[in-house]
């Protein structure tokens, strides 16, 4: 993982179930081989005045009954998200990464490239200030 601690701290997490459901029902998705990306733009209002990118991770029991395996998948997805998503932090979007069984089999660089490609396919622009 090459993300700096300051970049990781700028990323906000999705924590409520209602946020995950909002992304699922109102967003778009892209399915690379390693995981699923769901994305929804967020409106700034009085209830949610905070802007910027938020992300969430989920792995269902259908992937594996063992919590150890699901947690390992989540850790890999979190590392990929922390490396890639700070470059997109100016966008006012919510992103949900859904783990699959192939997430464990793919190497780290492939997962990273899959996320970058997915965001490009979903027309999310990289920050102008980042190289």
Tell me what you see in this structure:
The chain has 131 residues and is of the alpha/beta class. The chain has a single domain (5-121), classed as Ribosomal Protein S5, domain 2, CATH 3.30.230. The chain contains five helices and five strands. The protein has a five-stranded mixed beta sheet with strand order 1-4-5-3-2, sandwiched between helices. Helix 3 (67-84) crosses helix 5. The longest helix has 18 residues, at 67-84. The protein is globular. 29% of the residues are buried.
Which key features would you list for this structure?
single chain; 131 residues; alpha/beta; Ribosomal Protein S5, domain 2; 5 strands
| First and last CA, distance | 18 Å
SSE string, helices as H and strands as E: HEHEEEHEHH
Strand content: 15-25%
Rg, Å, rounded: 14 Å
Order of strands across the biggest sheet?
A: 1-4-5-3-2
Shape: globular
Query: How many domain regions?
Result: 1
How many helix segments? 5
Q: Would you identify the regions where 5 or more consecutive residues have pLDDT less than 50?
A: none
Q: In terms of structural class, how would the helical and strand content be classed?
A: alpha/beta
């Amino acid at each position: 993982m090459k993300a700096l601690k300051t970049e990781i701290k700028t990323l906000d997490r999705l924590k409520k179930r209602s946020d995950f459901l909002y992304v699922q029902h109102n967003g778009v998705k892209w399915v690379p081989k390693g995981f699923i990306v769901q994305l929804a733009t967020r409106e700034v209002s009085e209830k949610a005045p905070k802007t910027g990118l938020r992300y969430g991770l989920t792995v269902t029991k259908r992937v594996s009954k063992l919590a150890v395996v699901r947690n390992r998948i989540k850790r890999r997805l979190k590392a990929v998200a922390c490396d890639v998503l700070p470059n997109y932090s100016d966008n006012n979007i919510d992103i949900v990464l859904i783990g699959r069984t192939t997430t464990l089999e793919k190497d780290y660089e492939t997962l990273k490239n899959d996320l970058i490609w997915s965001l490009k396919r979903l027309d999310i622009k990289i920050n102008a200030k980042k190289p």
